[in-house]
């Protein structure tokens, strides 16, 4: 029987190998993301790094992390800040007006455009002032 030949130690070693394989793939992906995120590096240098990653992956990853590790953190922080800034501006652009004056101003613009009636404007105005 096939299951009788599988021992607990075989399962543990398989899980351990899969874990390290997953970590290795994640490190390679992070290095590649950082490599192409850097706008200061030219295309030829990027191509050389990729070729080195293909033919000498372990050595290249360690050299890359040692040589450019601090820059990786900076570029990652810049990317995160840019995404946060973009998200904040999006939220502000679609958020409802906060003050009563802004709400009345938007309602007046809708009334002038003919989108809402005078009665609806009065209701929105009363709601904003309450």
Written description of the protein model:
With 130 residues, this protein is mainly α. It has 2 domains: 3-95, no CATH class; 97-130, no CATH class. Helix content is 82%, strand content 0%. The chain contains 5 helices and no strands. The chain has helices spanning 8-37, 43-55, 57-94, 100-113, 118-129. The longest helix is centred in the middle third of the chain and has 38 residues, at 57-94.
Question: What topology does this entry show?
Answer:
Elements: H1 8-37, H2 43-55, H3 57-94, H4 100-113, H5 118-129
Mean of all residue-level pLDDT scores: 89
Gross morphology is: elongated
**What portion of residues is helical?**
over 70%
Order of helices and strands: HHHHH
Spans of at least 5 consecutive residues whose pLDDT stays below 50 are none
Distance between the termini: 78 Å
What percent strand? under 5%
Number of DSSP-assigned strands = 0
Described by strand count, sense and barrel closure, the largest sheet is: none
Q: How many domains is the backbone divided into?
A: 2
The gyration radius over C-alpha positions equals 29 Å
* Helix/strand structural class: mainly alpha
Number of helices: 5
Task: Jot down its keywords.
0% strand; 5 helices; mainly alpha; 130 residues
What's the short story on this structure?
With 130 residues, the chain is an all-alpha fold. It has helices at residues 8-37, 43-55, 57-94, 100-113, 118-129.
């Amino acid at each position: 029987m096939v299951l009788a030949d599988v021992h607990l130690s075989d399962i543990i070693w398989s899980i351990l190998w899969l874990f390290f394989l997953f970590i290795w793939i994640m490190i390679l992906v992070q290095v590649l993301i950082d490599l192409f995120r850097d706008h200061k590096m030219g295309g030829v240098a990027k191509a050389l790094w990729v070729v080195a990653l293909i033919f000498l992956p372990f050595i290249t990853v360690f050299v890359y992390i040692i040589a450019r590790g601090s820059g990786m953190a900076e570029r990652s922080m810049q990317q995160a800040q840019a995404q946060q800034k973009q998200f904040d501006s999006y939220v502000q652009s679609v958020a409802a007006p906060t003050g009563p004056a802004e709400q009345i101003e938007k309602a007046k613009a809708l009334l002038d455009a003919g989108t809402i009636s005078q009665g609806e404007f009065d209701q929105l105005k009363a709601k904003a002032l309450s």
